């Protein structure tokens, strides 16, 4: 079954490094892998996809007519992915957007009602500067605007000091494992985001082992990369600072509609369930909170300009130890912290963690946008990642052209084929050849001109600790692929995975299918259950790692099938796994 799944999954992938020089079609001999990847390598953008800058913003147009395009997300998903790339970079997502603790405080207070205020009633008021950040959602670009501006302008010494300001420190985490646990918060000493009753995580430069403080950084760098690791991507996946953040539209929707706490989500579930039981076939009308007026939700339905990003940041010393470039100018960099499990690395006999503080490099990131009801899914990877096009290939019909010298003459230059080799057995087969690196794709003229017009990737960074949109290192990212459907027009499951985020199970990764399983159920005691469905299934990759779901969702995940009226078992939460971090209201604040 695993072999059948692997072959079926592989059917949706991309075709090797195209671009610089092609060969005659009669001299090119596709392998069995190439034939299987043919459908995944399809050109996703139509020939009339184009963009222009108008009033400082990117606008999608039909290049044959010059008219605005009505649905670029579906018609030109690769082009639209680069549009999102430019927009989130200009918005400084890495510092301005809300992380998961900003969205879902660990001890949330109740939403303020008419006539109440945060300072007098211990409640949370959207838009108020008096909200307690320990108990209420905050949006960094608003709450810390002045500090963020100073950080952007600060020179090296001052910048390093400001980057460690407790108010500006980002909450990162290790990735979800197959057990899919909620966010494990990385608690820092004296952190304004930490709870007083939770122990702080010590720095890896001063960890008490057997009662004595030790600097374990050198040992961590030595041990984090075992010689028999499945891939470099898997090593990075398990040893990076994963920062998941959401834009202001997203953040405000959660806050104003009381979805920053688990109780508010339960209210929506109950309203939906009651609607099904008493009013079918008629649906309740969703009224989200607008203009300070409270809303009434029957489902979680984010606005069309909501965006969420999962980004992967790797500590500089770990990157160099993996053979990646030592030159920081090749990366987008920021001061962050990586959580290190000392017991897992054999540095502690008991469960113990420390945080590895310092310069981290952005090596990959997913962008998800609500421009279409089932979201647009897209992923970018840094050129230094040796396995960035492994297994699934890389597919980009808009930004950068493949550099595959073996591409037959007259074929499209959208696809970077995964590296292959012979297994050299008695009856040999062509198999994947992972972690060997890929030639650089070439930027296409239109995208090059648009980046220059938008002042993205057009110069040097002014800070080592805070990224700039102008930093030339933004041009070191390549599109892994885009996804807007569960299946294509002939019924084949679409795939999209990142060589870091989905390392170990990338051959069956589908962003849209995985996030479709994000939901909420209600326990018998009335509390929320955000783990009724899991990211991972009971099927395994060839390496033994759990797979995530791909293909079309099963309606019986969400509704019970019985002989009477159907009953909702799990309410979809609009593809948002982040609700795992929603906590019950502080007792007495309901």
Q: How many strand units?
A: 24
* Number of DSSP helical runs: 17
Provide the domain count.
Answer: 1
Radius of gyration: 24 Å
| β-sheet strand percentage | 15-25%
Instruction: Tell me the distance between the termini.
Output: 50 Å
- What structural category do the secondary elements indicate? alpha+beta
Average pLDDT works out at 90
Regarding quaternary structure, what we see is: single chain
Query: Helix proportion of residues, in percent?
Result: 10-25%
Q: What is the 3D form? A: globular
Largest sheet: 7 strands, antiparallel
| Low-pLDDT segments, ≥5 res | 1-23, 191-197
Structure report:
The chain has 590 residues and is an alpha+beta fold. Helix 9 (145-153) packs antiparallel against helix 10. The N and C termini lie far apart (50 Å).
Key attributes of the depicted protein:
590 residues, 18% strand, disordered N terminus, 3-stranded antiparallel sheet
Describe the protein's topology:
Blueprint: H1 2-10, H2 32-37, E1 49-54, E2 57-62, H3 72-75, H4 77-90, H5 93-96, E3 98-99, H6 100-103, H7 118-121, H8 140-143, H9 145-153, H10 156-163, E4 207-209, E5 212-214, H11 217-223, H12 232-237, E6 241-246, H13 248-256, H14 262-279, E7 307-315, H15 316-321, E8 333-341, E9 353-369, E10 376-382, E11 394-395, E12 400-401, E13 415-416, E14 420-422, E15 430-432, E16 442-443, H16 445-454, E17 477-483, H17 511-516, E18 519-522, E19 528-529, E20 536-540, E21 546-548, E22 559-560, E23 567-568, E24 571-572
Antiparallel strand pairs: 1-2, 3-6, 4-5, 6-7, 7-9, 8-9, 9-10, 10-17, 11-13, 12-16, 14-15, 18-19, 18-24, 20-21, 22-23
Helix pairs in contact: 9-10
């Amino acid at each position: 079954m695993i072999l059948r799944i692997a072959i079926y999954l592989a059917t949706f992938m991309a075709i090797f490094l195209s671009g610089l020089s092609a060969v005659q079609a009669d001299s090119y001999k596709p392998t069995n892998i190439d034939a299987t990847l043919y459908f995944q390598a399809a050109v996703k953008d139509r020939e009339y996809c184009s963009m222009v800058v108008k009033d400082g913003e990117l606008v999608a147009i039909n290049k044959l007519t010059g008219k605005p395009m009505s649905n670029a997300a579906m018609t030109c998903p690769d082009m639209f992915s680069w549009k999102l790339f430019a927009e989130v970079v200009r918005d400084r997502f890495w510092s301005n957007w809300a992380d998961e603790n900003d969205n879902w405080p660990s001890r949330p207070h109740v939403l303020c009602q008419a006539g109440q205020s945060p300072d007098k009633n211990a409640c949370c008021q959207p838009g108020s500067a008096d909200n307690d950040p320990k108990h209420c959602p905050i949006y960094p670009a608003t709450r810390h605007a002045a500090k963020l501006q100073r950080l952007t302008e600060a020179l090296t010494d001052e910048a390093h000091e400001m980057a460690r300001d407790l108010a500006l420190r980002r909450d990162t985490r290790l990735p979800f494992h197959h057990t899919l646990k909620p966010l494990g918060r990385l608690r820092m000493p004296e952190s304004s985001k930490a709870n007083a009753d939770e122990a702080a995580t010590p720095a890896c430069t001063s960890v008490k082992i057997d009662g004595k403080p030790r600097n374990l950084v050198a040992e961590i760098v030595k041990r984090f990369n075992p010689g028999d690791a499945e891939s470099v991507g898997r090593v990075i996946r398990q040893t990076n600072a994963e920062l998941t953040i959401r834009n202001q539209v997203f953040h405000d929707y959660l806050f104003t509609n009381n979805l920053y706490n688990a109780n508010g989500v339960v209210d929506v579930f109950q309203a939906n369930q009651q609607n099904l039981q008493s009013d079918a076939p008629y649906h309740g009308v969703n009224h989200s909170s607008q203009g300070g007026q409270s809303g009434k939700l029957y489902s979680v339905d984010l606005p069309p300009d909501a965006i969420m990003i999962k980004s992967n940041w790797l500590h500089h010393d770990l990157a160099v130890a993996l053979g990646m470039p030592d030159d920081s100018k090749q990366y987008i960099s920021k001061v962050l912290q990586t959580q290190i499990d000392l017991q897992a690395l054999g540095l502690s006999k008991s469960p113990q963690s420390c945080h590895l503080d310092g310069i981290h490099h952005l090596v990959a990131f997913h962008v998800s946008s609500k421009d279409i009801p089932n979201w647009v899914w897209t992923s970018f990877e840094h050129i230094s990642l040796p396995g960035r096009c492994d297994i699934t290939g890389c597919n980009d019909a808009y930004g950068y052209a493949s550099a595959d010298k073996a591409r037959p003459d007259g074929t499209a230059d959208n696809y970077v084929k995964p590296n292959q080799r012979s297994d050299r057995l008695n009856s040999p087969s062509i198999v994947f050849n992972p972690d060997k690196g890929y030639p650089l794709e070439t930027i296409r003229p239109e995208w090059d001109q648009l980046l220059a017009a938008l002042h993205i990737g057009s110069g040097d960074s002014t800070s080592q600790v805070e990224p700039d949109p102008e930093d030339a290192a933004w041009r070191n990212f390549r599109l892994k692929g885009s996804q807007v459907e569960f299946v294509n027009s002939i019924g084949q499951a679409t795939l999209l995975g990142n060589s870091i985020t989905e390392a170990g199970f990338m051959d069956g990764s589908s962003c849209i299918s995985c996030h479709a399983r994000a939901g909420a159920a209600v326990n018998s005691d009335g509390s929320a259950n955000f783990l009724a469905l899991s990211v991972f299934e009971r099927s395994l990759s060839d390496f033994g790692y759990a797979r995530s779901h791909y293909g079309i969702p099963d309606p019986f995940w969400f509704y019970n099938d019985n002989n009477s009226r159907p009953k909702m078992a799990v309410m979809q939460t609009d593809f948002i796994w982040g609700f795992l971090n929603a906590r019950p209201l502080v007792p007495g604040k309901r």
